[in-house]
Amino acid sequence: MEKLSNRAVVIIGFIAIGFGIFLLTYDYFAGKKEKAYEKVNISLFSESEEGIVIDNTPQNIAAADIGTTVESGEGGQYLGVLKIDKINLEQGFYDKGNAYNNVGKSVTLLEPSNYPDEKNGNTILVAHSGTSYLGYFRNLYQLQIGDEATIKYKGNTYIYKITNIYNETKDGDVMIYRNKNKSTLTLITCTKNSDTEQTIYIAELQ
User: Is residue 27 part of a domain?
Assistant: First the structure.
């Protein structure tokens, strides 16, 4: 009888330990479940400087230029403006159907993107990081988790804070890991000093 009691105590103990482990890890796995990935296609090829004119003129765009014609007349109207104070970046971008919404011409809004005012959407912007005039994202490597970026869109300012930075192989596809219960901004560019990787910056709406 005593042996049976001891065995019962041991079994109950194991059950209690297992239940305790479940309670401790539940929040962790629940958080992981919120994280989902989106696979997007992207073409960020080698940033050769051959045949490209180097232009060190700042590419800042005033907020008043949103919805107005670009000074050069190329591309028509901006859809919005990306601004990152830390790296002195303020650059307009076009809508997805615009011929100048192309990584070879400007900061590019990828086709799978949502617009900033869509709940729990993901706005995905891509640009080169080289030293040519196309290298709008040349200084993104200076960003760290906690830094802010803003998008001015339809008269509103959306403030995002970077929550994750990671690299992936440059193979034509990018896995975007984000919390689908939050509105996010994703910035993608070639990794500094690498011909084979690209860097992804995930920022959540504040």
Answer: no
* Residues with Cβ within 8 Å of residue 10, at least 6 apart in sequence: none
Question: What pLDDT, on the 0 to 100 scale, is given for residue 32?
Answer: 43
Coil/strand/helix, residue 201 = strand
Counting the structural domains of the chain, the total is: 1
β-partners of residue 91 are 82
Query: Does residue 21 lie in a domain region?
Result: no
Q: How far is CA 109 from CA 44, 71, 93, 116, in A?
A: 13, 20, 7, 11
Q: Does 187 fall in a domain? A: yes
Range of the domain at 60: 37-205
Query: pLDDT digit string (tens) for 5-25?
Result: 667 666 776 676 766 665 555
Domain CATH code at residue 75:
2.40.260.10
Q: Which of 33-47, 51-65, 94-108, 125-139 has the lowest mean pLDDT?
A: 51-65
Looking at the domain assignment, is residue 28 inside a domain?
Answer: no
Supply the mean pLDDT for the chain.
77
Report DSSP letters for 150-161, one per residue: EEEETTEEEEEE
**Residue 190, helix vs strand vs coil:** strand
